[in-house]
Amino acid sequence: MNTIAENNWLLTALVFTPLAGALLMVLIPEKDERSHKQAALITSLLTLGLAVFLLWDFDYSNAASLQYFVDTQWIEVIGAGYTIGVDGMSLPLIALTALIMPLVFVYSWHHIPEPGNAKAFLILSLILETGMIGTFVAQDLVLFFVFFEVVLLPMFFMIAVWGGANRRYASLKFFLFTLFGSALMLLSFLALYFLTDEGTFNMLVLTENAGAGIARGTQLLIFAGMFIGFGVKVPMFPFHTWLPDAHTEAPTQGSVILAAVLLKLGTYGFIRIAIPMLPEAAEAWAPWIGLLAVIGIIYGALGCLAQTDMKRLIAFSSVAHMGFVMLGIATLTDFGINAAIFGMVAHGLITGMLFFIAGSVKERYHTLEIKRLGGMLVQAPRMGWILGFVSMASLGLPGLAGFWGEFPAILAAYNPAAGVPEGTFRGYMVVAAIGTVLAAGYLLWLLQRTAMGEPSIEFADDPNITDVSPTEWIAWTPLLVGIVLFGVAPGLIFEVTDPAVVQSLDNCIMTGCEGVQTATSAAGGG
Amino acid sequence: MPTVFATLAPSSVPTSSTVTQSANWFLENAWLVPLLPALSFVCILFFGKRLRYKGAELGIAAVALSLILAACAGVAWLDHRDNFVLHNTTDAGVEAVAGESYVAVQNSTQWLQSGGIEFSAGILVDGLSVMMLVMVSLVSLLVHVYSTDYVSDDKRYTHFFAFLSLFTAAMLFFVLSDNILQMIVGWELVGVCSFVLIGHWWEQKPNSDAALKAFLTNRVGDVGLLIGVITLFFAAGGGKTFDTIKINEAIVQGGVSHSALVVASLCLMAAVMSKSGQFILHTWLPDAMAGPTPVSALIHAATMVVAGVFMIARLYPVFFEGMQIGGSSINVMATIGAVTLVFGGLLAFVQNDIKKVLAYSTVSQLGYMVMALGVGAWTAAVFHLFTHAFFKANLFLGSGSVAHAVHSFDMKKDMGGLRKFMPKTYVTFIIGSLALAGLFPLAGFWSKDEILAGTGGWGLFGGTGGNGTYTFHLLMGMFGAALTAAYMTRCVYLTFHGTYRGGHGQHHEPHESGPRILVPLYILSGLAIVAGLANLPPGFQLVNNSWTERFGHFIEPVGSSYFPKIAHATPSWSLAVVASVVALFGAVAAFYYYFVKVDRLAKTTQQSLTELPEGLTESNALAGAGHKTLVNKYYLDHIYERGIVAATKGPLARAAYWVNQHMIDNAVNTTGETAVKMGRSMYDLVDQGVIDAFVDGSGRVSDATGEELRQINSGKVQNYAAILFAMAAVLAGAFIIIFAF
Amino acid sequence: MLLNQFLLLSAVLFCIGVYGVLARKNGVLVLMSIELILNAVNINLVAFGALTADVGGEVFALFTIAVAAAEVGIGLAIVLLIYRNRRSIDLSEADLLKG
Q: Which of B712, B713, B718, B723 to mutate to test the interface with C (most CBs of C within 10 A)?
């Protein structure tokens, strides 16, 4: 048993600093908005500081194993422990979360959405942060589930209170969809608990166990439960319909958090829980996951082409992009899963940025209808260029972050793990490659209709339409830098995730699942 | 890794890579060449507007430095090629490797690591890349200088120079790549720069449409690129490497399955077709003329479109084996090239826009290059790429100079007779046209002749040898040569001869351009004259043998471990003469039509004509009886006019253009529209109709249930209490019943 | 046995209490009726405690009395507030929680 000692406080501090900040803010009177904004920003910056320290202190030579590991009893009756730790797989996602939140708070400085009440809004955001970081560090299924659900409520209120015209419908849809998935996921967790000999929720033990002693048919069912639970969150076709509504109605900050971090909880669940714990079932389900992934890619792209609303278009593009992530995961190769993690981070940066822009466009034009926009490059040239830049990143331009999520996923699909049908995945590869064309199509079309051309008469002399403001610059620059940085030096992420992913899959081999194999066994080197 | 190849090679003889890491400083550090323009891009973007010349000086300085470095690398390469001896470290010590010493320089560093495999980023410097470095940086420098005048009053001047720099950097990066992953990066960066520059004047929708079309068409080809690269990654090079040399070596050694190569080469061919404007994916190229003229020059001469040709040359073993080029008489690549060169040439006839003539001419010339690569004439293709860069840049910049004077690109409406107003531009344009037409002794003659010889289809006087007997392609090439000469003659006439037709509403006459436009033109036309001498055919009796084939000697990696064993054609005097006569024939036919007949008619009627009026009677009525006898006197007239020229100019070209505009373009547009329609109907029917209806339905059911149950909730405490007690009573009753019995 | 009488008494008290809770409109009377129900329970607790010679019964009865005292305190406060707001303590009018 490992208790909190010496260095182990770090993760706990990281998870609960936002919550502590939120509790503190409860004491500040509601009218004092400025203090609230300061408090939220300072809290998130503190969290970011801790995350930076984590990045600095992390033992990269040992990225495959869990570090800052804490394992104490929590709820003894059911054997749930407070087990947390971080390895190469979760580190980039934690860093992403810690980075996004301060930016959201900076953006909130001048952009508290209607109907105001900064206090509640910011407190909810901080609770969200605790939930998200907690999900990424949890190494116990109950703890994971709790954090996973903690995320749900603040987001629900964010959409339901600060959302657009149709917010009640969207928020309920979001809530019910996710809850439905969560219920099935919880069932699967319970099944794992009761069916394994150890009778534990400890993820390390379950991963090592890798489904031994559970009948194949049962494994398939348990995996299906997780599949739906995580798949709703991703979201995978056909569980995706909550996403466009939620994104369209959510306030800018909500959309950014939703796109940048929340969607990753689902994919993270796949690579952290579903696949390592039930590799045999994963192998059986892989073709179906792959199929839904490529359907998502094409479907999302076609959906984008049909949209008339900028924010909705971006939301649909998330479906397509997460399709690439899921395709990488479905290959069950270390290469594909590395690509998936990269894709998650890249999508977080890029789509988060796109939603920021959409929010700013809405603020200036009071509409997101693509038909009415146009000529942004004339009226707000910097914003137009940023939109162009991010669109290029989003469509997978090499040299920018988006490429390294897409291309390796397509690459991995050429040669999926043994036991996964190769021919099928090569078909998926071609379809996914065609998806990149469609991605270029809808993004550039969006760019052409919104940014290029002359401004429409309606907005030609509108004094509201100004270029990027200082707070926007502060909030956006880190994302833009990240997009370039990870595009030029993808090794920054790949080298962190690679050992952990390789080990996670190696573990599956050692425990008797021959299907999942790593590329290292046949590697030539480069 | 050598061990992998040892297991792959069929024999037990250890094979050595003809690659070295240590060489001359300029070769080892060639990565500086693309880095400088890239830095200048960043600097111009951030500080450009504050500088005195609004950023142009940064771009010019960076590209000039690049050119110097590239030239130094070129000189170093000349020495390296002849004098470098590869040493191999074995157990017995260091020993020199025997054989011809074509040793490429590769210098790489780790880039990323995934799936336990390390991927490197690096440079591969050999004759091909050094030549490209020099050529790209030279043309780019001239374009930079030219642009300072040409776009001087543009409101996005600084921005233009920033992207000009990035465009150059991307292309230089591309040609230096030592692995295909890096090549994808360069390839796409080139694409996106072209998107930005073609759409430079994005206020007008046609311009942004053209930019979008260029990018999307390229993106379609990129599907092929992605799949081809992935196939190579897994199939070649011992599995899982992107390294160009290793992939090529593995293929040359025969360790790669043929079917994989067929797939890879066809997929990559699709990418080449889109990037290098091959028929049927060429339609974006003429539209790309929407961009500023210096950009067109850069796109068409040095960057972008030659990227496809360069990629074939770089990965030649893939295509050589995959397309089975050796010993054949037809293959996909050569045929695509041949069709493109004729098709493009025909289209150039019916254009009124001077830039579009040149654009289609580029399509046609790229067809030559691809055809040359398709028939195994590697050096000829690369040499043509080299010479074409100079005379095409010359022509484009010349057309820009003209347009700068008359503020239009329309030859029929706004040009004519410009020879008098801009004599200097006229001379350079003539030189460029002659070089493009392939007339002796200008650059185009030598490279085109080598391509024709390389087809191996020439059967007279002992033939030319080569890799196969590509007679069909030889004929297409000859036809193309005649076409080229003819449409360039037409273009020159319409632009520079006759009388000036423009100036509507303008009070000043067209004027000669300034020095910043003319000097690049002089340099380029000078190069268009002499560039051909770089690769005089062997056995060319007029000069010493040590002066012949210098280009091929220094550029072609023959004898290296990563180049297929191709056969080399021998030049043929008879072919050269016949090809020249054919080209002359085209030129003379067009010359006769325009310079003699149209011109005479124009003088007679005191009108400015661009072609003969339709119909024989009408022209006779205008020209008078004397003219009529003259026309009928020549037996060949009818063949020229009604036959060759009219047929190509009229139905054939028009049909081709019709196919182009209505069938291919239509297909492209329809595909786009269908995709949008599909998207819309799918969204309405499936997404909103089925999936969402299901979701909403479940919500509605629970809602209705709740509505019913709501009735109980009266809000009165006593009702609740009554229910409570009633339930308690029921439970008590049940309790009694259960335990009583 | 004395127990039956105690049980009967408590049953009668309980029934009166239930009647009061369900039928009376006056909030104070309802509260008083709740007291009756609780006291009926207390009688039962004490009676059974005496029967089995277990002090637990008495202890629980005291516990219940304490809880009842608190409940009456809060209950009367609520009634008072209702009266202040509505000038009436008629429970049938207090149906704001109607769904």
A: B718
